[in-house]
Every structure is written in structure tokens, then in C-alpha cells.
Amino acid sequence: MNPLFNLVKQYPIDHHAFADDNQLYKDSEIDQIDTTVNEMEDCVVAVKAWMTANKLQLNDSKTESMLVRSQYRSFPENSLPSSIHVGDSDVNFVSSVTNLGVTFDHFLNLSQHVQNIRTIAYSNVRKISSIRHYLTPQAAQTLACSLVLSRIDYCNSLFYGCDQKLVESLQKVQNSAAKLIYRSKKFDHVTPLLRSLHWLPVSARIRYKLACICFSAKFEDGPKYLKELLVTYDNPSDYNLRSRADSRKLETLERSLPSFGDRSFASAAAIVWNSLPSSVRHSASKDSFRSSLKTHLFRESL
After folding, report:
1. The predicted structure's pLDDT at residue 257
2. Which PANTHER family match (predicted)?
3. What number is the average pLDDT over the span 27-38?
4. Degrees (nearest 5) of the Cα angle 100, 103, 105?
5. How far apart, in whole angstroms, are the C-alpha atoms of residue 7 and residue 49?
6. Residue 65 to residue 82: CA distance in whole angstroms
7. CA distances (Å), 149 to each of 13, 41, 157, 186, 256, in order?
8. Residue 97, beta-bridge partner list
9. Which are the contacts of 185, defined by CB distance < 8 A and separation ≥ 6?
10. CA 148 to centroid of chain Cα atoms
11. What is the distance between the alpha carbons of residues 149 and 166, in angstroms, rounded to a whole number?
């Protein structure tokens, strides 16, 4: 696919690719949105021509487009385009798209994705409940981990900085799974159950995933594009400060929009990483880091 990527690089467009799923994207000011759409269309025309010349075909019917914007900013009526031209089709902008199993909405608040998780997870809880009397607690826990927690944990680092109500709704799913394992009553206190199962709460699981990704990207063989976003804290003016001696702290970004800026990996990873005790940050290996990190979060959360 390198020739295709080289072609896309000729245009002021960014891109991602996974298997046969290619994505083009670009940020734009509102007064330049028409120019951005035209640039995107020109790039698509070039991509289609390249694919035709190489005996490939772009599936117009499966092509989707989405205009991501802030839910806190109003736009004049008819100021935003309604579609983008792809091949012989006009692809209307949709309110959500699915990317590698994650549903992204045009406000990036992930509310629809959380709702999808809840629907599937609760369905699985009901299925396990229907056969719970045949299962041992260990077997029920195995099913809950594979059918419920796996849904909550998939790409859960994206939930950092999201509306707390969304995280709380996922916590209710986890609570239901824990009560199912122990066959507890509806209003029984769930914290002792989570502690017994050694399950981190959802908010802690999000921080755990972010910290693990950060450790791999910074100190092991993590993706280069993530490694480039993590900058070690190095301020000469702090030479005599105790924090100067901690060479494993990361620089935090200055951002003008905390509601969105703090959710970026560069900012979120630094905030979570710097909040960890020095003994955790200085773990010698990934395994020891994960172990000490979970112990720290477990004590902090439960």
C-alpha cells in the first residue's frame, strides 16, 4: 500500500489504514470547510484512479463520511456541507461511524458507543443468569470476564475525560456482573464483591489501560506515533527541585480547550502517568509495572 500512501501525501490530507479499511481526514476552521471538502474530493478522485489502474475498486456504497465538531458551538443554518462527492455518489455526512469496533459520533462524546456496549453486555448478563444455577462461581466469573468485562475493556482508554455519567453507566454493568457471580441481591453493596473478585472499577480500568500503553510506548517497543507524543519532563530551571530527580515524569500539554484537549493521548497519558507513585513509574519491566500499577489502583479505588 506504500504507493497509495505516497499518492495521498501529495495532498494536504492525513490518512490511516488498517487492512482494507482506509481513512482520510483533515482538521479545518469553519470558514475553510468548503475548501477542505474540495481537497478531500480531489484526493478521492486520485485514489480511485490509482486503484482502477491497479485492478482494484473503491466501494462507493460502503464509503462513509462524518463531520466532527463541538457540541458546545452553534453554527449558522446551512453553513455546513451535507455531503462529499465520491466516485458517482454523493456520500452524506452521517452522525456516527464504526472504526475497528468503536462507534464514533460526530461530537466524539462516545455516548452511542457506550450505549452499544451496555446493550450487548446486559444481554450477555441475562444469558449467563439463565444458566447461573448450573455454574460454579469460578465458571460464572470466567463467563463474565469473557462476555461482559471484555466489552467494557475494549479500547476503554478512549473513555478518559468522557462524561462521568457514561463511565457510571458502564460501572453499573460491571456491578451487575459481579452480583451475578455471587448471586447477590439487587441492593447489596458491590464494593466487597469487586474486592473479592480483584476487579478494578471502570474508572480505574481506564487509567490502568492508559498507563500500560504509556509504559509500552515510552520504554519498550510501542508504536512510534505514540512514542513521539510523550515528552520526558526536562526543565533546567527546576534543577534543584526534587521533581527534577524524577527522570520518568512526562511534560503536560498547555491546552486552551480542556474538555477536548485533556482527552488527547499526549495530555491524558501524561496526566495519568505523572499521578502514579515514583515506585510504580520506575518499574523495571512491563510485568512488574502492571503488577505494581494494579496494586496501586486497587488500593486507591477500593
Report:
1. 67
2. REVERSE TRANSCRIPTASE DOMAIN-CONTAINING PROTEIN
3. 90
4. 135
5. 11
6. 10
7. 37, 41, 14, 19, 35
8. 104
9. 179
10. 18
11. 16
d(CA 38, CA 26): 12
The residue with greater pLDDT, 102 or 85, is 102
Vertex 213 angle, CA 241 and 198, to 5°: 100
Instruction: Please give the grid coordinates belonging to residue 221.
Output: 517497543
Domain locations along the chain: 2-94, 109-199, 207-237+256-301
**Which residue shows C-alpha cell 460502503?**
62
SS3 assignment, position 90? strand
Residue-wise pLDDT tens digits, 51-79? 999 998 888 888 899 999 888 887 776 77
d(CA 45, CA 57): 12
- DSSP designation for 110: -
Cβ burial of 194 (10 Å; 0-12, 13-18, 19+) is buried
List the single range of 15-19, 115-119, 156-160, 245-249 with lowest mean pLDDT. Answer: 245-249
Lowest mean pLDDT among 72-81, 142-151, 211-220: 72-81
* C-alpha dihedral, 152 to 157 to 158 to 160, nearest 10°: 100
Cα–Cα distance, 267 to 131 (Å, whole number)? 44
CB 21 within 8 A of CB 102: no
